[in-house]
Amino acid sequence: MDAFSSFFDPRSRSNWSYDTLKNFRQISPVVQTHLKRVYLTLCCALIASAVGAYLHLLWNIGGYLTTFAGFGTIIWLLSSPPYQEQKRVSLLMTSAVFEGASIGPLIDLAIQIDPSVLIAAFVGTALAFACFSGAAMLARRREYLYLGGLLSSGVSILLWLHFAASIFGGSTAFFMIEIYFGLLVFVGYMVVDTQDIIEKAHLGDLDYVKHALTLFTDFVAVFVRILIIMLKNSAEKSEKKKKRRSD
């Protein structure tokens, strides 16, 4: 909990300066090069997922089939040896296309309700990702890795909540609690996974494809939840406007 409290501690923030922002001496040049490859691969995966979402808008291909295909591709990627670099990059891009097609119905709904919400959700996710990943890079090594156990417990709670809702049924309020709690968990994973990638790279694990996959999963999980929250708020505003007009 000390690591979590220090993240929001004003005294620790007051120690930051412009020199602190330029201080990457904790990260060796080899690790910095590795991070560049990770984030470049992540950007390519996001573009591939956008292509997958566009394919859904054209041919309505998103659904359970693309979801299972995405899981299968990820398992294939993780089971492939690291030296098969070109194959693993292709598998990552393929899984990103399937992931984009899987969330295509949600994106289609956002376009029908308010296209600006889609752009705002992506920009908000990108800003959150940049801020929390940057904070993880600038923090002391391994400072936030201890949050991993707490976040894993949060994922377990999410699974149990989803399981209970599927059996007993759930209200809209219960669904939104699950969404907000999941958003908090996966934002935390942005910090923990970034530090975990840096630490593994220092120890010699330079598998940039697997690390890009980890960050891609975090990004999509946060994006979907932010988009759902913004869509609900937009729908509520439109309903209020209709009621005012009818009155």
TrEMBL record:
Q: What is its main location?
A: membrane
Q: Which keywords does this chain's UniProt record carry?
A: Membrane, Transmembrane, Transmembrane helix
Q: How does it sit in the membrane?
A: Multi-pass membrane protein
Give TM regions. Answer: 38-55, 61-79, 91-111, 117-138, 145-167, 173-192, 212-231
Where found? Membrane
Q: Name one GO molecular function term.
A: calcium channel activity
Pfam families reported in the protein's UniProt record: Bax1-I
Which GO CC annotations does the UniProt entry carry?
A: membrane
Q: Which PANTHER family match?
A: BAX INHIBITOR 1, BAX INHIBITOR-RELATED
- Family membership noted in the UniProt record: Belongs to the BI1 family.
User: Under which name does UniProt file this protein?
Assistant: BAX inhibitor 1
Q: Which organism is it from?
A: Theobroma cacao
Classification of source organism: Eukaryota, Viridiplantae, Streptophyta, Embryophyta, Tracheophyta
